[in-house]
Structures are given as structure tokens and as C-alpha cells.
Amino acid sequence: MDPTRLRRIRNYQNTEFFPALFLRPASILITIVIGDWAWVTPNRVTLFATLLKFAAAGMFLVDDRCWLVGGAITLLLGAVFDHVDGTLARYRKTPSNLGFFYDTVSDAVTWFTTLAALGWTAYQRTDCVHLIVVAGAGAYALMVNGYTRSVVETATERAKAKAAAAAAPDLFREEGAPPPERTQAEWLAWVGRCVGQIWKFQEMDLFFWVTVFVVIDRLPELLWLVAITQVAALAIRFFLRSFEMARFDLP
Q: For the segment 94-135, what is each residue's pLDDT rounded down to a tens digit?
């Protein structure tokens, strides 16, 4: 393995629990293999990830343990390839607004179909119609959380780009973050910090929780967990990000 090529593939870091410990490493391994396949484009990878997630939602509609576990595995694969598209785009230095838009919309739509399918299956089992409402609340909160994050990130990137362009207009260009160089002790500490993020129930961590609760066959509890954590996160982020966005209006 060419060390320079590996550094280019590892040019993005994540400290969220599940992405850092599973999704990112898996996406790096896949990109090592497919990174130079010209016919594999980031947008095609996004499409593949989207189709996997839709397939998982379809499998969740079948109230059979084998189908449900198979759906959880398929959803995990979709999550992995959802990381591969960005890794591939940064590796090739071909990020695009279309790719960002496509990926963001795909996440919103596929989370809705996933939770709707799980909500329907839970309702069929228990005859508790409120579980469909709970599933919808979780999906809606996830979508709005993702939207507010995108708005803040876009404003932040614009502010950074403006400052960088003003400081060095001839040199500024997006290169991505350099990969970390850590000692063994530092890596262990980093893993500990990532595990410590598990309580936040961030969007990409939900792939882990969906898998766990589907495997142990606790669909109503899963729907309540997603709804409560995401509505709470939405309320907190609304206030925090309101102040954060206000900073960009200051002279």
C-alpha cells in the first residue's frame, strides 16, 4: 500500500461513536479497493447506498426474524457505503454540490422509510397505532436535525472560505484534513473518547442502535428510543444553533 495514497483516503476524521469505530474504518478499507476504479463514482456509490437502505426498509416490513436481521445487516451495509461516497470524493478531490445535495436528501428519505417500516411492523405485532406516530416523530426530528446541521455547516464553511480567501487568495483550496498520527496510548484514549459519545445518539449512531434492537427483537422500544432522543436533540440544537448562526451576522 502506497503511504501517500492511504493518507489521501484517510483525509477525514470523525469522533462520533459508531462512524469512528466502524463506519469510517470500513469505508477506508472499501475505498482502498475501489478508489481507482473509474466507473465507480461517488454519486453512483450514493445511489447504491440508497438502494441498500430502501431494500432494508422493505425487509423490515416482513415480520420474520430472518428478514428483520437481514434488513439490519443490509441497513449497515447502506450506512457503510453512505460513508464511502464522501471518502471517495475527497480521495479523488472531486466533491460537488450535487453530491452533497444527493447525499443529504437520500439520508432524509431513507431514514423516513426505515422508521416507517419498523413502525408498521411494530403496529402489526402489538395493534398499538400510536407506534406509527412515534416512528413518524422520530423520523421528522431526524430530518429537521439533519437540515439544521446542513445549514450551520454551510454557513461555517462559507465563513472559513471567505476568511481563507482573504488571507491567501492565490493559495486557498480545499485539501481535507490530514490523517492523525497517534501513539498507541493516544489511539486508546481516542477510542475511549469515541465510546464516550455513545450517549448522544447522533444520526449515524442510530444505525448501531437499530441493529441492536432489531437483533434482540425490541421494535417498540427502538421506536421510542429514536423519537425521544431525536426530539430532545432537536430542542437542544435549535437553541444552540440559533446562537451559532447569529454569530455569522456579527460584523
A: 888 788 788 888 888 999 999 999 999 999 999 999 999 999
Cβ distance 241 to 152 under 8 Å? Answer: yes
CA-CA-CA-CA torsion sign (25, 225, 237, 152): positive
Contact of 141 with 230, CB cutoff 8 Å: yes
Q: What cell does 30 get?
A: 472499501
Query: Is residue 102 within 8 Å of residue 85, measured between CB atoms?
Result: no
pLDDT band at 40 (very low <50, low <70, confident <90, very high): very high
Angle at 240 between CA 244 and CA 192, to 5 degrees: 105
Q: Would you list the domain boundaries of the chain?
A: 3-247
Q: What is the mean pLDDT of residues 156-176?
A: 52
At CB < 8 A and 24+ separation, what contacts does 50-56 make? 50/78, 50/106, 50/109, 50/110, 51/78, 52/77, 52/78, 52/81, 53/78, 53/79, 53/82, 53/106, 53/110, 53/113, 53/114, 54/110, 54/113, 56/114
Fold of 3-247: Four Helix Bundle (Hemerythrin (Met), subunit A) (1.20.120)
Per-residue model confidence as pLDDT tens digits over 7-28: 888 877 777 899 999 999 999 9
Q: The cell 454569530 sits on which residue? A: 247
